[in-house]
Amino acid sequence: RKLEEVEEEAKKEEEEDLEVDSEQSTIPANLERLWSFSCDLTKGLNVSSLAWNKANPDLLAVGYGHFGFKEQKRGLACCWSIKNPMWPERTYQSPYGVTAVDFSIGSPNLLAVGYHNGTVAIYNVQNNSNLPVLDSSESPQKHLGPVWQLQWIEQDRGTTGDDKREILVSISADGRISKWVIRKGLDCHDLMRLRRMTASTSKKGAEKEKKGEALISRQAPGMCFAFHPKGPVYKIAWNPFCHDVFLSCSADWGVIIWQHENLKPFLSFYPTTYVVYDIAWSPKSSYIFAAANESRVEIWDLHIST
């Protein structure tokens, strides 16, 4: 009897454990609210953008404003510290809503802010001044619509960090993706212009549409962009003998052979861990090409070895 009682108690305990496990498995996942960044200045404003500082992970930049054109009243950019959720470390007020923010990589004290009226401004968060160090108000190429995204991009000039140059890239509702370079002021050049693509049944119809289309109607507003993490392509070279084959080299250390109608690489070469800056086919052989990085030149003969 004692053995039977012990076995029954053990069975009951197992059943209770199973019931507890089944109850726990049905409990929905939840997130515990630790703290929030809020003050009198931010009341009534929408949060439009966020960016963590690259050097100081305790510092968070937040952009505030209104998204609708008719709702524009005021804008605000704040630098919040995790150590003080009651009041921001820096505040930058504006009559226009803030639509984008991003901290510089090479100079983490520089904060780029994009506004609903198309202005791009750069603030030095190390200073107590609320005025921007630079802004695009004097630039003849400034955006004519809201700046929906800003991003600092490092461009490789060599293999060391000292050779990197940083540019600021913006995308706007005016259909332009622009790069901003800090020289004497903010100098702007367009990387790309976005245009609306209309589906046409014939070439003649497309020609008529182009002729009758107003310039402003062809612009397509841009909302966001992303750069490929492997870096830019530095050179493309067509094979002088096989006209549907070409070479490319890029910052991802690779040389790739492509065939014109194939989206996947035909052959890929990654001989070193250096950026490949230049390539050239031999004028006398369709198998031979040269590749150059910062420290050496390589000659490849595909007829012998890949």
Automatic annotation (TrEMBL):
GO CC entries: axonemal dynein complex; dynein axonemal particle
Region (Disordered): 1-23
UniProt subcellular location: Cytoplasm, Cytoskeleton, Flagellum axoneme; Dynein axonemal particle
Keywords: Cell projection, Cilium, Cytoplasm, Cytoskeleton, Flagellum, Repeat, WD repeat
Keyword Cytoplasm: yes
Main location as per UniProt: cytoplasm
Xref: Pfam families: WD40 (PF00400)
Basic and acidic residues biased stretches: 1-13
SMART domains in the cross-refs: WD40
Residue stretches of each WD repeat: 276-306
GO molecular function, one term: dynein light chain binding
Name of the protein this chain belongs to: Dynein axonemal intermediate chain 4
